[in-house]
Design brief:
Elements: H1 11-20, H2 31-42, H3 73-77, E1 103-114, E2 117-123, E3 137-143, E4 152-156, E5 167-173, H4 179-186, E6 192-200, E7 211-217, H5 221-233, E8 240-247, H6 256-265, E9 270-276, E10 286-287, H7 292-298, E11 307-312, H8 315-321, H9 336-340, E12 348-350
Parallel strand pairs: 7-8, 7-11, 8-9, 9-10, 11-12
Antiparallel strand pairs: 1-2, 1-6, 2-5, 3-4, 3-6
Helix pairs in contact: 2-7
């Protein structure tokens, strides 16, 4: 069962949450939660910060912010020589780390997701090979245009399963003046891009925490999906997961079908909450931005046992919810809503 204090404000809301722990989710069943939160909270404080455009918090202006901070030199140097553990005859791993260097992969297929986001499939070096990435890790990409003095480097988290053989899938949003995302969106099947990794982030193991909260904005959802998928794929991992996902419009909500599938398969362990800055008229979930009151209502509290909160999104989101990272290699001081709610630095991880 989800913690009894997972949803706090009202007896009616508590009753709804008790049903949440025992029944499969039904279409639109988060409306009551947002209605109760909105009546006393969402109407009052939608601003993440006072000096930045509201759109920025949902990942519309920053290429690197949507996938966490760029890889630091330390992270690149600490790419493990070996990743994962296999028994018997294990498939070959495309990305071995260590001194392997960059691997050139061929773009196989491009799928349009929405007006500024595409899904890219790259073929691995062998049809039988797997990526070699552990959960909560990323790859860095490298591209140097003909007029560039230095190559551009960007980290991206695959959305394909780590055990899928023969290919890697990425969902990437095009940012204005974002050199890597613009290059990717201009690529055609048959062209190549350089990748290196894996870049390890948070070291995950089954049941490391009782309950985790994933707070994401825009394309910051990709490492969250990688973690959630890995948890629910492992029958030994019983971790409960709550997702809070902020976007500008309904079309910007990525991987929604995949999360809905998880919600149907694991109704007692997974729940997703969506917030839109510009919702359609019939939108039944959160409206505006992710607020402290919404987080207080839907994620586990800092004293609800062994909990961990993960944050990934644009700079404005970090500033409001957790405070920014000090550097790509350093988490920095905990600030924002999570600190105000009583979480400690040890309970929060910023991708």
């Amino acid at each position: 069962m989800f913690s009894s204090r997972l949803f706090r404000p009202a007896q009616q809301l508590s009753s709804h949450v008790r049903r949440y722990a025992t029944e499969p989710p039904k279409s639109g069943n988060n409306g009551l939660i947002y209605g109760l939160v909105g009546a006393g909270a969402l109407g009052g404080g939608y601003y993440y910060y006072t000096s930045t455009s509201p759109v920025a918090q949902h990942g519309s202006v920053n290429e690197s912010g949507g996938h966490g901070q760029p890889a630091s030199k330390t992270e690149e140097q600490n790419i493990p020589a070996k990743t994962g553990a296999g028994t018997g005859v294990a498939p070959s791993k495309c990305f071995k780390g260590g001194d392997q260097g960059f691997v050139s992969l061929v773009l196989d297929h491009v799928e349009n997701i929405n007006h500024n986001t595409k899904k890219f499939r790259f073929k691995l070096d062998s049809e039988d090979a797997v990526s070699g990435l552990p959960i909560t890790s990323a790859l860095i990409t490298k591209y140097k245009g003909p007029e560039m003095e230095k190559p551009v480097i960007r980290p991206y988290t695959p959305v394909s399963d780590e055990d899928e053989a023969g290919y890697l899938d990425f969902i990437i949003k095009r940012y204005p003046n974002g050199p890597m995302s613009e290059h990717l969106h201009n690529m055609n099947p048959g062209q190549r891009l350089d990748f290196k990794g894996p870049i390890p982030k948070y070291p995950w193991s089954a049941n490391k925490h009782d309950h985790i909260a994933l707070i994401a904005g825009g394309t910051g959802i990709t490492p969250m999906y990688q973690l959630a998928r890995g948890i629910f794929k492992n029958p030994e991992d019983k971790t409960k997961v709550t997702l809070v996902f902020g976007n500008v419009t309904a079309d910007d909500v990525l991987l929604k079908r995949e999360f809905e599938d998880l919600e149907q398969q694991f109704p007692q362990r997974f729940r997703a909450f969506y917030v839109l800055d510009q919702p359609p008229e019939d939108w039944q979930q959160g409206k505006g931005f992710i607020t402290k009151d919404l987080l207080k209502t839907v994620i586990p509290g800092p004293k609800d046992g062994n909990v961990k909160v993960f944050v990934c999104g644009p700079p404005g989101m970090y500033k409001a919810i957790s405070g920014p990272k000090k550097s790509p290699a350093e988490q920095g001081e905990l600030q924002g809503y999570l600190k105000e709610l009583g979480f400690t630095e040890e309970q929060v991880y910023k991708f």
